[in-house]
Structures are given as structure tokens and as C-alpha cells.
Design goal:
The structure is a homodimer. By secondary structure, the first copy, chain A, is α/β, with parallel strands linked by helices. Chain A contains ten helices and twelve strands.
């Protein structure tokens, strides 16, 4: 059996790289800048050069490398092709094929949010589970679905795009995607700020949230302090997210549901609020499905990318 | 390669049996009664005897049979075990193991709605697709999810239990499952009747639906006649179902969505109403996902059961 593999997580400003043993031990991680000039033409060659330099440095022979996995911000299909990746200035690219040509190693590619879910299912908050839903609560809401230990990428690369689940058809404001009432409008960092601003406007009630900048962190900090207005905001956020997760559980019935992304740094009080609302809405066989925090943070992407090839 | 396989669909009153070629050609089908006495102890032996009689009749040697697939009304796990099946009076049963012992053939088992989805993905309305959502609109709403050509049975056998997706948390009436606002309460035959009765009560408007028994069929018949009240009922049904399907598509992004079950006999007008509402709520990459009628009717179960073993 080959001993090593590489996991690469390509972002718009930097590329995270990991050298792993195939058992999932992270040997070393480093970053290189993302060069998005010339339609991002240098991105894959830069990654290949960095991998080859690391192999020379460590004296690792090609024969001892299982492959290179790559997570990319965009809709990668299961053959490793992408129609475009806006943040990288890429048009169509056959990522895995190009990387194989550049390195002579087996290469596979996936969407970054999906790959992060795979990483969490391998070595993170859902380690050992083969059926997982990850909801990534950041600026937007992303996610990944793992079934039988594999990413569900979907017919149009939209598998796990749970941020655009339509939870509130009567919502007057529109989502970035053009629809109205997407989960992302309620459960992302910006969505929580939006709910908080609405609550502040609708009520004259005193609140810690009137005393500084309104952010998702400020909302959860105030919630932990027992602030009544923040409590209503968190309840509303949790009702949308908990019910959405309950609906998703009727579809794929996962072993574990994970919450990741910046918003999830609010920790256990957030998990408990979501779990309470999830339980109300979930179908009986799924009511006790555990909801947990993702555990790998910014490393989930390199772990999941490595798992693509081992 | 072995030439034949059997597909068995166990219902509460009768058991449908099919002899198939492994390429999916149905050679012969027949039914036997379901004997639910003595905790349904005779059900699997009766099936085994019927299979063995058919093999003798046709001169089919055991060596030429790929196996027996069985669909059962209840939560079958991926090892072929079931904790109970109320309609069959079964307690815990290791279906596949018992059937293997009875017949000496390879046996696999699955939930009947999931197995029907597999049949439709193999030889029915979604023939050739490997990512499918089937919504079965009958007395209740069931379903099945196919990913990479395989059933998603889920951690608690609740994969594809889309009838219990919580679409309307404010719904005052309760679903059979105990929750409030399940899709089944709006999109099953009984759900449509419920919506129609509400509409008849709330409005004094004249309607064809005031002239006979209110059934799902009567609602769609009146809708096709241009009846304004039936139109509102169908729009409401379609808004719930279309939005639910759009949410499910954010999770697994299927190639095709199928509508089956008795309600789907309303045909193309139903499909068009659902497609219209689906499109409003769907995430952009999934807006053009085709919604089609299931094609195998009551035979979907035997086809899918056969596919379990070939």
C-alpha cells in the first residue's frame, strides 16, 4: 500500500496544502498564495510545483504517493471537471486530468464544501460515520452530504447546496441566488444579522445588541448573557435551521448532523438551540440523530481532499 | 453470468412475484396471498415455496439464478433486517438471511417504497438515471432516493421518508406521525381531500366539488374542467409539493424527479402544476430538473426488488 497522499484546498486568496499518511495522519501543512491572474492559469501548476518540492524535501518517491485530492470553490462534477470557478477566474477546467498531467500522480477533485464534509466524516466531528450532513454556517450557508462514505455531488454539482433550501416562500427580501426565503437568508452570519436588525427595528426593547456593531457573534454573545431580544433572534434562527435539518433528514436519514463555519463558533448553546427545534420538526425515527459541532475548522478541506484519493 | 432473478413485493394482503432475466426483462409475474396469521410466520416460507415451484415449472436450475430481492412495508436496514412490519404482523426479522436459508439462493431485502424507486430508476420513468427522487402520492406520501444507482436507506431506515418533511410548522391538525405540517398532510390523496374540504368550507363559491364525494380524483377532474375552487386546491397542493421537491433537490440534486402513486394518475396536468411551483422554489442549477410520471405502476416493486440482486 502507498504511504502518502496530498490534500489541497484551493481558496480565492490562498491554497492550503497537506501531506497526509493514507491512514489520515496529517504529516505537514502549508499554504501558498492563489494567483488568479490570466484566468488563474498558474493555480494548478503552482500546486503541482509545491507538491513536487515537498516530495523532494521529504525524499518521497512517486511510487509511494496514492494521489492528490483537490477541493475547489465551484460545482465540480464527479469526473473532476468544473464549468467555471468565479473566485479563481477559471472558465471550464478538467481539474483532475490537468493535475495528473502536471504531477504524474492520480488526482481527484471535488467542491470545497462537499470535500470539507468528507473530511469531517473521515477524521472530524463525524469520524467513522458514513452518512453525514454538514451545514456550514458562514457568510452564506453551504454544506455537504456524505452517503456510504462518499460525497453526493449531484446531477448539476448542486448536491449539498442546502443554503438554498426554500424555507420561507413569503420572504419579501431576495437571496443572492435570486429566490426568496432561502435558508441562507436566516441561518448564515449575514442572515442572523438581518434577523437581529429586524427584531431591533420591530421592538423598542432594550438589548445588548443596541450597544455596538450587530454581528452573528454579538447576537450569540448577548444570547449567552440572557438578553431577551437576542434570545428571540436565536430562537428564530434555530427554528429555521432546525426545521430545515429535519427536512433534510427525511431525505437521507444521516447518522450525524454537523454544524460548521464561523457561526458555529458560538458552540454548544447554538447546538442546543438547533437540536431543540430539530427535534420538534423531525420524523420520529430521526428525532435522536445527534447534532454536533464540526471539529476540523479550516483543515476540514485538506482532510477531505486527501480522502478523495485514499 | 446467471440468467434469472426473482423480484418479490410483499404487501399486507397479497405478495407480487416476478421472474426476471438479469437484463430486466420481466418473464412472468404472479401473486400469492399474504398470510399474516401467527405473526406472519408463513410469509417467507410461502414465498420460497412459490419461487421453488416456479423454478421447477420452468426447469430453471439454482445455479442459473442470481438471487431473490424482496420489498417489504417497513424500515429495512442495509443488512436486510427489519425491527417490525406492522402490516405483516412481523416483529424483528432478518429477512435476507431467512430467505437464503429457505431457498439456498442469494437474498436481499429493502423497504417497499425505496425498492419501487429503484425499479423506476432501472426500467421505469427514470430508466438509465442513477440519481433519482421518487415521490409516491398515495393514501400517504412515501418515497425513495436513489444515489449512484443505489437506495439511500439511511441510518434508521428513514431514507426517502419525504412524506414527513415538515412544510408547515403552524399547521394546527396533526399528522399520523404526531408532528404538525408534514408534506403528507397536503400532498397525499387524503391531504388533497383535506385541502379541498377546507376550501369548500372557507368559501361559498360554487364548485363541481359540491356535487359528489370529495376525493383526490374528483379534485383533479374538476381542475381539468376549469373549476375555480379546484384550481385553488391544486395550486395549494402543488405549491407545497413543488417547494418540498425543490428543497430535496438542494440536498441530493437528482437527474430526474418522479411522481408515482394513485394521485399521480391525474397525469400531465398534475405534473405541470408541480413543475411550475418547483421551478419557483428551486436553486438555479436545479430549476430545469425534469419532473416526470413514474411508469411501472404496481410493478415498480417487483422490478426494484429484482434489481437488488442483479
Amino acid at each position: 500500500m502507498k504511504k502518502y497522499c496530498f490534500g489541497i484546498d484551493v481558496g480565492g486568496t490562498s491554497i492550503k496544502c497537506g501531506l497526509f499518511c493514507v491512514d489520515g495522519t496529517l504529516e505537514e501543512k502549508w499554504e501558498i498564495p492563489t494567483n488568479t491572474e490570466n484566468q488563474g492559469a498558474a493555480i494548478l501548476p503552482d500546486i503541482a510545483a509545491s507538491i513536487q518540492a515537498k516530495m523532494r524535501e521529504k525524499g518521497i518517491a512517486k511510487e509511494n504517493v496514492a494521489g492528490v485530492g483537490i477541493g475547489v470553490p465551484g460545482p465540480v462534477n464527479k469526473d473532476g471537471e468544473i464549468p467555471r470557478a468565479v473566485n479563481l477566474n477559471w472558465g471550464y477546467k478538467h481539474i483532475s486530468k490537468e493535475m495528473e498531467a502536471l504531477t504524474g500522480l492520480v488526482a481527484k477533485a471535488g467542491n470545497d464544501a462537499n470535500v470539507a464534509a468528507l473530511g469531517e466524516a473521515w477524521k472530524g466531528g463525524a469520524a467513522g460515520a458514513s452518512q453525514v450532513i454538514l451545514a456550514t454556517l458562514g457568510t452564506g450557508v453551504g454544506g455537504g452530504i456524505i452517503i456510504d462514505g462518499k460525497i453526493v455531488s449531484g446531477a448539476h454539482g448542486a448536491g449539498g447546496e442546502i443554503g438554498h433550501a426554500n424555507m420561507e416562500p413569503e420572504e419579501p427580501e431576495s437571496c443572492n441566488c435570486g429566490n426568496h426565503g432561502c435558508l441562507e437568508q436566516m441561518a448564515s452570519a449575514t442572515g442572523i444579522v438581518r434577523l437581529a436588525r429586524q427584531a431591533l427595528k420591530e421592538s423598542g426593547q432594550d438589548s445588548l445588541l443596541r450597544k455596538g456593531e450587530v454581528s452573528a457573534k454579538a447576537v450569540f454573545d448577548a444570547y449567552k448573557e440572557g438578553d431577551a431580544l437576542a434570545d428571540r433572534v436565536v430562537e428564530r434562527f434555530a427554528a429555521y435551521l432546525g426545521r430545515a435539518l429535519a427536512i433534510f433528514a427525511c431525505v437521507v436519514d444521516p447518522e450525524v448532523i454537523l454544524l460548521g463555519g464561523g457561526v458555529s463558533r458560538a458552540g454548544e448553546p447554538l447546538v442546543q438551540a438547533v437540536q431543540r427545534e430539530y427535534k420538534k420538526a423531525a420524523f420520529s425515527p430521526c428525532k435522536d440523530t445527534p447534532i454536533k459541532l464540526a471539529a476540523l475548522g479550516n483543515d476540514a478541506g485538506i482532510y477531505g481532499a486527501a480522502k478523495l484519493v485514499c
